[in-house]
Design brief:
This protein is 40% helix and 16% strand. The protein is built from eleven helices and ten strands. The strands form two sheets. An eight-stranded parallel β-barrel has the order 1-2-5-6-7-8-9-10, surrounded by six helices. Strands 3-4 form a two-stranded antiparallel sheet. It has one domain: TIM Barrel. By secondary structure, it is of the alpha/beta class. 48% of the residues are buried. It is globular.
């Protein structure tokens, strides 16, 4: 019997990602103490959730269940009440079996996983993995970069997990590696896909570049939630460097509260 899945927070901050460093932005958190300090500031600014990556001693992307257990234990003390989501991103370093192992053995209740990575070796273990997560009450937020990924999810995810309002999705708008700036219209194919399959998931958006806030505002207006932070964008709508992650969170929170016109039109600046 599956356990209850925790819903996504309205605003989840993603403060670091797998590849950016303090050379990218001096306020990007690399160590666990830096991450905890950033998380506290973002929680005060209005974020209810934290999506975080860990780094090894040399600053490289680290996907390790033991390290995640230690980090989760510490963060629960430092930011009580904040939803804590780990990543399974491979960053070209880790295999699907390793990614699935980390998700199942880190002690996390919230996990993000790109279906294109989790299922790239074999559909059968991916299907079993999603079923086991549900049985353990681990909320998997499925990362979808395009509609092809979304169609793959339909193929791989067991039907009872697909057709439930506890299904969690993240639609990625734009691409960092390709320098492709996001635009709110990039959400439309995902919305059409949800309607076509008659799905009513718990979904959110993240977006690359200076248009991040406009894209998140558009998602909110259509009933979605928001992932904001330096993993996807470390600049403001005018293209100037952001102060820090907390400032990005505060600006988005104010935007969602006010539904300000500047939030809707920032992408055209």
């Amino acid at each position: 019997m599956s356990m209850k899945i925790s819903p996504l927070p309205l605003i989840m901050v993603a403060p670091n990602g797998a590849t950016k460093t303090r050379a990218t932005h001096p306020a990007l958190p690399m160590t666990l103490p830096q991450l905890a300090q950033t998380a506290r500031a973002c929680q005060i600014a209005g974020a209810q959730g934290l999506h975080f990556h860990l780094r090894d001693a040399s600053g490289g992307h680290l996907l390790d269940s033991g390290a995640y257990r230690e980090a989760l234990t510490q963060l629960k003390v430092d930011v009580p009440g904040m939803a804590l989501q780990i990543t399974t991103e491979s960053a070209g370093l880790y295999s699907p079996p390793h990614q699935r192992h980390v998700a199942l053995n880190s002690g996390a209740r919230l996990v993000s996983a790109a279906v294109a990575e989790i299922a790239r070796d074999d559909r059968r273990p991916a299907r079993a993995f999603y079923g086991e997560c549900a049985e353990r009450g681990i909320a998997v937020q499925h990362i979808l970069y395009n509609v092809e990924d979304a169609d793959l999810l339909v193929e791989v995810l067991p039907a009872p997990l697909l057709r439930t309002d506890s299904l969690q999705l993240l639609f990625v708008l734009g691409r960092y590696a390709e320098r492709q700036i996001a635009h709110p219209a990039m959400l439309d194919p995902f919305r059409i896909w949800m309607a076509h399959h008659q799905l009513q998931p718990d979904w959110a958006v993240c977006a690359f570049g200076r248009t991040e806030r406009a894209c998140l505002q558009a998602a909110y207006q259509h009933g979605g939630k928001c992932r904001v932070g330096f993993e996807n964008s470390h600049v403001r709508p005018d293209g100037t460097p952001a102060v820090d992650n907390a400032a990005q969170v505060a600006a988005l929170a104010a935007c969602l509260r006010s539904r300000a016109p500047t939030c809707k039109t920032a992408h055209s600046r």
